[in-house]
Amino acid sequence: MKAITLAYDHNPAPRVKNGIQLLKQAFQDSGYDVLEEAVSWTWDSYRSIKGRKLFVGNRGESQFLQQLEERDVLLYHTENPEGEGFYVASVSGNLVTISGGNDSGVLYGCLELAQRIRTAGLLPEDIAYGDAPSFALRGPAIGLQKTTVEPPRQTYEYPLTPGRFPWFYERGLWLDFLDMMLEQRCNIFYLWTGHPFSSLVRLEDYPEALEVTEEEFALNVDTFRWLTEEADKRGIWVVLKFYNIHIPLPFAEKHGLKLHQPKPLPFTSNYYKKSISAFVKSFPNVGLMVCLGEALQGQIYGVEWFNETIIAGVLDGLKDLNVKEKPPIILRSHAIEPQKVIEAALPLYPNLFTEAKYNGESLTTYTPRGKWKDIHNRLGSMQTVHIVNVHILANLEPFRYGSPSFIQKSMQAAKYRLKANGLHLYPLFFWDWPFAPDKVEPRLRQLDRDWIWFASWFRYAWNPDRDPQAERQYWIRVLGQKYGSLEAGEAILDAYDASGECAPKLLRRFGITEGNRQTMSLGMTMSQLTNPDRHMPWADLWESQAPQGERLEDYVTRELAGETHIGETPPEIIADAVRHAKDAVRAIERAQSSVTCNMDEFQRLVSDMYALQHMVEVYVQKVQAAMLILTYKHTVKGEFFKGLDLLEQAAVHLENGLESYRELTHITEKTYLFANSMQTPQRKVPVRNGLEFGHWKQCLPIYETELDQFKLHLEELKAGQLPQALQNLKEPIVPYKEVPFKLLSDNAELFKVEKGTYVFTDGDIHIVSCAEELNNLTGIRFGQMQAGLNGIAIDIELEQPSQVLIGYFNNKDQQWLQAPSLEENTHADDMGGYAPILRKGLRLYAYPSVNVHAFNYEAGRHTLDFGRGAYLILGIVPADQVMRQRDVEHKNDGIDTLDWLYE
Fold first, then answer.
1. Cβ contacts of residue 437 below 8 Å, gap of 6+?
2. Distance CA 388, CA 2 (A)
3. 234 to each of 101, 123, 367, 468, how far by Cα in Å?
4. pTM of the shown model
5. DSSP class of residue 311?
6. N or C: the chain end with fewer CB closer than 10 Å?
7. Cβ(259)–Cβ(249) under 8 Å?
8. Where are the beta strands (DSSP E) in 153-227?
9. Could you say which residues of the chain have pLDDT below 70?
10. Across the chain, which distance is largest between two alpha carbons, in Å?
């Protein structure tokens, strides 16, 4: 019988205890007789213990390890273990030591040795191995969020109850999840919600703030405390993420406040400070992640709210606690510039972190550049740990993704290009956690289906610089064990790596946005490909989240002009996508004969590869059609009866693309419940409303109609007829009606919207021209300087439900208020107004042009307070006013866009 003495210092920390138990189990499973005991060994006494010995300890606290180090008995050939680093060593006296830089380092050392014991079936005779993580924070995000709003609550507002989140109370699910994180050496997970405190703390001063029943409250506290204790055993920080300034519904109703507050009030600050203090006292090993953007006007009030409310609440909660380390506070860099907030906060609280999205809300490249690279570099250079957030993954949904090669390069880019030191990873289907989107009963768990997604990111968060050839062999072994043979493992790895290039390349060259407005797998309309400006494209997609390259129209105009191309071109990308898709299908077919286990999951993987190939073919055919149509546009120059052979060729590609879409629909009808996890009105590409158009079968009729219209208009042109669509674009423009309202603010005045009128109370900036729809409406003007420097609040009273017309300047300078953006603010479309109704609807003397948006308001009193930056109030019109979206300069919706070909 093999025997081992497993020793450690008295009163080990919970995560050290857990490491010891992992070791003990590995020894016992390998046939060892284990004597486990707390000891008080010294450098001159341990040799008296007979047989093989293993000592586990934190080198910063263990006197025994310190004595061995001082006498050169325990030496390190790598960096001395610090923090989460560890070193496993055979030393004289038949002793093996696990020396951790801290308690987590001890745990990881135990995990490493336990894995080696299981693999070899015994404790190695000679070992000298040290390791430490490259990234300080490594872990996934889970959402206590839903995609449906519960009026009168607003976006993100979901009290924590078994009815809303039954999975939260499933301890077996949590244990599987936490064990996966420990196996992958994660040290944090991020729990996202809107306002968690009203479900987890009770305040004597604000009893009305509790949003759950007493029974639900007790269950929440018990579950959350158990969860944080189990996480702590595994060396994992739980971090609770919340939005600012959100307040509980009963609290808001009692005090006559809006649920989402744009600026601090003494009353709301006091409530938040006490909530956070009570939360920290109840859960001292839980960190906080703070979003100062969206509802809160963070650029103006971020420093004040962060320092005087949030940090003050944390410090108050900690003052009577004896904790080893202060909980992390992570500032999310979303809709706010975080530098000045962090600089002001560091003297108050040292354990600060920053976070920013890696590729926006998709996965597009491992070479991010441009503005977003600069943002990451600035944050990474501060006195904080900077975290990359691999967010939403809107272009990968709903298919499996597991390209270790792409993911390794992404983590190397996070380290070297972005200067980050932490990973925050979304699941592939975030909004439907814990379930995968597959059409299977019982539903698959994402934890199981997407195991390789989690394993790849966290492996390379620990060490992104592993040798690629060795990594290939590693993943072949892992996949071979899962599917029954090394031959199967190699072929499946090739399929994962090839397919992993398809969606990133297609989206970054042809997409509208890297944000969650677009479900890429559902395709794109021809208007979105040939006239993207109409659909509010997000320039960061190709300026930051893609290598240098050309958009479709840029490519066509350069090609026609004989100019040299630069970077990725559309033909190169579609050729690449076809090659990758074919390679993936060939590889998965090669695996068929070698797979001997997990056959059901393998067949689902096969189906995904075929579906991805059809998706690629849809894009390839439509992009080829788009290039022909754009060539037609720039060669016929308005003489639409010429060059019809180009349109005839495009029609063939559209026919082929539609056939591939039908095949894609046929596959996914059997395999997927829906294409995206966020089925909300924010989904606008390819079709508005992700709930009604969340599956390929719902979008197929849109594309069938698109092709029918194209063929109809082509036949009209071939017959020498002017299509009716062209005539409809020439309909007369009707001025908007206005409704009566009262201006209640004394810091503003009314004015008539017409040529020559001043638009601000300070200065002489006047209207040069305006859209006919706006002429003679009654606007409200105020001081440009006040609005630009501090923001301005305007009080009005409406007699009836109305639309308020707001003008945004077409300039990104900080002096101008920026239009709402779904990429930055999920509330951007709550009141309508997301898309401009009149692009460049107003021109001013010497100022940028103005886009006009319309926001919905009920009858009654309202405060118009949009934050810092100058803007215009150009009139108030009836709620039912019909508004035709158009570009007043006829560049994005005029005849020359050719949108009439498809509509």
1. 397, 398, 429, 672, 673, 674, 675, 677
2. 46
3. 16, 23, 33, 29
4. 0.89
5. I
6. N
7. yes
8. 188-192
9. 725, 727-731, 824-829, 889-894
10. 104
- 356, containing H or E segment: strand 352-357
Under 8 Å CB-to-CB from 418, ≥6 apart: which residues?
358, 368, 373, 376, 377, 380, 386, 388
Place of tokens 């809006």: 258
Residue 66 burial (C-beta neighbours within 10 Å; 0-12, 13-18, 19+): middle
Rounded to whole angstroms, the Cα distance separating 799 from 857 reads 11
Question: What was the pLDDT predicted at 891?
Answer: 55
The rounded distance, in Å, linking the Cα atoms of 730 and 205 is 64
Identify the pLDDT of residue 583: 98
For residue 38, give both structure tokens: 């707390």
Question: Whole-angstrom Cα distance, residue 207 to residue 250?
Answer: 10
Q: Which amino acid does the sequence have at 360?
A: G
pLDDT value of position 358: 96
Q: Could you tell me which of 196, 182, 287 has the C-alpha nearest to residue 230?
A: 182
Beta strands in 195-253 (DSSP E): 237-243
The predicted structure's pLDDT at residue 825: 64
Q: Pairing mode, if any, of strands 128-131 and 86-91?
A: antiparallel
Q: Cβ distance 246 to 285 under 8 Å?
A: no
- Least Cα distance to 685 among 787, 852, 541, 487 occurs for 541
User: Is 318:276 a contact under the CB 8 Å cutoff?
Assistant: no
Q: For 7-36, what is each residue's pLDDT tens digit?
A: 999 999 999 999 999 999 999 999 999 999
Of the candidates 305, 211, 218, 194, the one whose C-alpha atom is nearest the C-alpha of residue 254 is 211
Rg (CA), the chain: 30
- List the structure tokens of 236: 């994992």
CB atoms within 10 A of CB 845: 12
E-strand spans in 783-883?
A: 794-798, 802-809, 838-844, 850-857, 860-864, 872-878
For the chain, the straight-line distance linking the first and the last C-alpha, in angstroms and rounded, comes to 80
Instruction: Residue 489: name the closest of 501, 499, 475, 470 by CA.
Output: 475
Q: Which residue's structure tokens are 């906060």?
A: 345
What's the token pair of residue 298? 């963070």
Phi and psi of 839, rounded to 5°?
-80, 130
Q: What is the H or E stretch that residue 6 is in?
A: strand 2-8
Q: Do the Cβ atoms of 223 and 236 come closer than 8 Å?
A: no
Number of Cβ within 10 Å of residue 82's Cβ equals 14
Q: How many CA atoms lie within 13 A of 649 on its CB side?
A: 14
| Three-state secondary-structure class, residue 37 | strand
Residue 221 in tokens: 């506290």
Question: What's the token pair of residue 258?
Answer: 């809006």
Output the six-digit token pair for 596.
């001997």
Beta-ladder partners of 246: 260
> Which pLDDT belongs to residue 453?
98
Per-state percent for the chain, helix, strand, coil, to nearest 5: 40, 15, 40
What pLDDT, in 10s, does the model give residues 57-108?
999 999 999 999 999 999 999 999 999 999 999 999 999 999 999 999 999 9
| 547 preceded by a cis bond (ω within 30 of 0) | no
**What is the pLDDT, as a whole number, of residue 890?**
56
Q: Tokens 């934890």 — which residue?
A: 447
Partner residues linked to 749 by β-bridges: 781
∠ at Cα 862 (857, 866), nearest 5°?
85
3-state secondary structure of 374: helix
Buried b or exposed e, range 472-510, using 16+ CB within 10 angstroms: beebbebbbebbbbebbbbbbbbbbbbbbbbbbbbbbbb
> Rounded to 5 degrees, what are φ and ψ at 80?
-60, 135
Return the closest-CA partner of residue 245 out of 197, 315, 317.
197
Tokens for 471, please give them.
């990594």
Cα angle 897, 854, 526 (rounded to 5 degrees) comes to: 25
Distance CA 510, CA 572 (A): 12
Burial class of residue 246 in the structure, from the number of CB atoms within 10 Å of its CB (0-12 exposed, 13-18 middle, 19+ buried): buried
